[in-house]
From TrEMBL:
<feature type="transmembrane region" description="Helical">
    <location>
        <begin position="117"/>
        <end position="136"/>
    </location>
</feature>
<feature type="transmembrane region" description="Helical">
    <location>
        <begin position="216"/>
        <end position="238"/>
    </location>
</feature>
<keyword id="KW-0812">Transmembrane</keyword>
<feature type="transmembrane region" description="Helical">
    <location>
        <begin position="90"/>
        <end position="111"/>
    </location>
</feature>
<dbReference type="Pfam" id="PF00528">
    <property type="entry name" value="BPD_transp_1"/>
</dbReference>
<feature type="transmembrane region" description="Helical">
    <location>
        <begin position="276"/>
        <end position="297"/>
    </location>
</feature>
<keyword id="KW-1003">Cell membrane</keyword>
<protein>
    <submittedName>
        <fullName>Spermidine/putrescine transport system permease protein</fullName>
    </submittedName>
</protein>
<dbReference type="InterPro" id="IPR035906">
    <property type="entry name" value="MetI-like_sf"/>
</dbReference>
<feature type="domain" description="ABC transmembrane type-1">
    <location>
        <begin position="86"/>
        <end position="293"/>
    </location>
</feature>
<comment type="similarity">
    <text>Belongs to the binding-protein-dependent transport system permease family. CysTW subfamily.</text>
</comment>
<keyword id="KW-1133">Transmembrane helix</keyword>
<feature type="transmembrane region" description="Helical">
    <location>
        <begin position="173"/>
        <end position="195"/>
    </location>
</feature>
<dbReference type="GO" id="GO:0005886">
    <property type="term" value="C:plasma membrane"/>
</dbReference>
<feature type="transmembrane region" description="Helical">
    <location>
        <begin position="143"/>
        <end position="161"/>
    </location>
</feature>
<keyword id="KW-0472">Membrane</keyword>
<feature type="transmembrane region" description="Helical">
    <location>
        <begin position="32"/>
        <end position="57"/>
    </location>
</feature>
């Protein structure tokens, strides 16, 4: 092909559009984020693929048999011990998420609507507990709820009980209390951001049209803050269902969750395929539960309005 033909080909409309797109903001943005995206993909997506692949294999003593099988999933879904751990983990995670959002919403609402010039100070105070180690925060609740801890000592000094309660620690309730405290700040912040974006004139208009404060909240504030509520719920639910440290320290035998079984299979059990199957099953169950909760929240808010 001659040089003239090459020049004619380069001057076609499609090549001109291509050059224009390469000089656009969109192309420069994609070129900027592409390395980061590929790096994140390699660190996040590939490990998940490896875990999924392991879940279809079997452990043959110290070797991995790469013959395709669904035996690991059969055990994960039919063995009573794993089924009970799945149910308990989802129940604790849902309870923690609901309680955390319910307690966090009033705090975020107060900071957003009544924080005034001290909003940044309030947000600063909310994040103070996160300065300490997660492990230390869990251990602090072990001290508070223990047999000779702060809670029992206070109840005895007020004359409400005669001897220390043994039911405060090493059960699912202790796990819920500890997780709610540990994740409260992570729920307050997204709800606060969502509340900050609400146009205050909409609330004033609702009040001018005869709505009470509570009705204006239900019709304006609550629906418009739903994205923050959903974000807070997911931020709390997804990590807590796989929490390992908290059940280990304050849960006892009644607070054991699925993460303990997964760790046991990857550790002393030396059965990585079964541990991978438990992990994948947990991810699927959490995704389905989260989707169902999000749809239920949207439906509930729509009915309230």
């Amino acid at each position: 092909m001659t040089a003239a033909a090459f020049g004619a080909l380069a001057d076609t409309p499609s090549s001109g559009r291509r050059r224009a797109w390469m000089r656009s903001e969109e192309a420069r943005g994609l070129a900027l984020i592409s390395p980061t995206f590929l790096y994140a993909l390699a660190l996040l997506f590939l490990p998940v693929l490896i875990v999924i692949a392991y879940s279809f294999w079997t452990q043959d003593y110290l070797d991995i048999d790469r013959t395709f099988t669904l035996e690991n999933y059969r055990q994960a879904l039919t063995e009573p011990i794993y089924r009970d751990l799945f149910i308990r983990s989802l129940w604790i995670s849902l309870t923690v998420s609901i309680v955390t959002v319910v307690f966090s919403y009033p705090i975020a609402w107060f900071i957003s609507f009544h924080g005034g010039v001290h909003k940044n100070l309030w947000l600063f105070l909310v994040t103070v507990p996160c300065w300490t180690s997660y492990l230390l925060r869990v251990m602090s609740w072990k001290v508070i709820l223990g047999y000779g801890g702060v809670m029992n000592t206070g109840l005895i000094s007020m004359g409400l009980i005669d001897k220390p309660l043994t039911s405060l620690l090493y059960n699912s309730n202790a796990v819920v209390i500890t997780l709610v405290h540990s994740w409260a700040a992570f729920a307050i912040l997204p709800i606060y951001v969502s509340l900050q974006k609400i146009d205050r004139t909409l609330i004033e208009a609702a009040r001018d049209l005869g709505d009470s404060r509570f009705k204006a909240f239900l019709r304006i504030t609550l629906p418009l803050s739903l994205p923050g509520i959903i974000s807070a719920f997911l931020i709390v639910m997804i990590p807590t269902v796989g929490d390992y440290v908290t059940p280990r320290l304050v849960g006892g035998k009644d607070g054991v969750m699925i993460a303990t079984a997964i760790q046991a299979q990857f550790g002393k059990g030396a059965n990585w395929p079964l541990g991978a199957a438990l992990s994948v099953t947990t991810m699927v169950l959490v995704s389905l539960t989260a989707a169902a909760v999000v749809l239920a929240l949207k439906f509930t808010v729509r009915r309230i309005r």
